[in-house]
Design brief:
With 322 residues, this protein is α/β, with parallel strands linked by helices. It contains eleven helices and 13 strands. The chain folds into two domains: 219 residues, 3-Layer(aba) Sandwich (Rossmann fold), CATH 3.40.50; 60 residues, Alpha-Beta Plaits (2-Layer Sandwich), CATH 3.30.70.
Length: 322
């Protein structure tokens, strides 16, 4: 087994980690979650995607009991075999949560933060020390064990919050935008750690604005907009089934109008935002007519990705609340 991941508690891990149906959550006149349902198999990474205000974070809070779902219409939710509205503590005891904020105690050092947190789970001091050492090694933070929190970089703080979330050997790890604002190197390190945790049996729930992140580590994605499900499935299958495989990006705004006029084929889909024109097609050959009017540096020809699908599903305009 890979070094550093044997601390995961595999006892009683269910084949299905979460089942949800007809979940609603409203705040006065705002319906944040509207009739959502899904199933999360155990030992997988399940990603919630959507614009700001889509209901992702609200749904995550409902799952781990921080927010109560609406009583009417009646919905059902089982998390590791428990309903969060009836057994909130049982779920929290078996889950680890990484919220959007690092919320570490700035007055303490790394080990002190972890030691205090371990007491919330009644972990004996000797056992807590062992787990802390293992997890700091796993997250490549051993050399920072006595460092003041204020001296840590953003990436180090994020990894430390993940160490804290793993102290109770959770079966379920909930990550709310875990790599926002981090540089690419740190992001890839975290992805690698999450893959190892998933391989060793932890179920991961993830919200993220990085489509590459979702594509890299999610087995299944659930795309939301305005509180409702738009589509769900395996990332590559969704791309294959719902969007043209090739896209030509016209990166100079002054060229977009004239080139869009050239395109009269019904097999090429046009899309424009922030001055960038995009032409989607089922084959590169269909785009050759446009390519003949472009110089190197005017365009970028590539395969469609999860971000293209996301924008097709949710639109490119900002939500009013953003």
């Amino acid at each position: 087994m890979d070094k550093g991941v044997w601390f995961v508690n595999k006892i009683g891990m269910p084949k299905t980690a979460i089942t949800a149906s007809n979940i609603y959550k409203s705040y006065e006149d705002n319906l944040a979650v509207s009739g959502v349902g899904f199933t999360v198999p155990g030992a997988t990474c399940f990603g919630f995607l959507g614009p700001n205000g889509a209901g992702k974070s609200t749904l995550m809070k409902i799952i781990y009991g921080r927010t109560r779902r609406d009583a009417y219409p009646k919905g059902n939710l089982s998390v590791l075999g428990w309903d969060p509205q009836q057994n909130e503590l049982a779920i929290k005891y078996r889950a680890g949560v990484v919220s959007q904020d690092n919320n570490l105690d700035q007055e303490l050092n790394v080990v002190q933060n972890l030691e205090i947190y371990s007491r919330f789970y009644d972990i004996a001091p000797d056992e807590a020390g062992k787990r802390i050492d293992e997890l700091l090694d796993f997250m490549e933070l051993t050399e920072k064990r006595n460092a003041p929190i204020r001296s840590l970089s953003g990436g180090m703080m994020r990894r430390l919050v993940m160490v804290r979330a793993l102290l109770n050997r959770p079966q379920l790890l909930i990550l709310d935008e875990p790599t926002t604002g981090l540089d690419p190197q740190v992001r890839h390190v975290i992805w690698d750690k999450l893959r190892k945790l998933k391989k060793d049996g932890i179920t991961i729930l993830l919200t993220t604005h990085y489509m590459e992140e979702a594509y890299q580590i999610c087995d299944h994605v659930f795309i939301m907009d305005k509180g409702k499900k738009v589509m769900e499935g395996k990332p590559q299958e969704l791309i294959n089934q719902n969007i043209e495989p090739y896209v030509l990006e016209i990166i100079h705004p002054e060229l977009v109008d004239s080139l869009f006029e050239i395109v009269d084929s019904t097999s090429i889909r046009k899309d424009r935002s922030a001055g960038v024109g995009r032409l989607y097609a089922d084959s590169i050959k269909e785009l050759e007519t446009v390519l003949n009017h472009l110089n190197p540096g005017d365009f970028y020809l590539r395969q469609s990705n999860l971000e293209d699908l996301f924008f097709k599903a949710t639109g490119r305009n900002l939500n009013e609340k953003q």
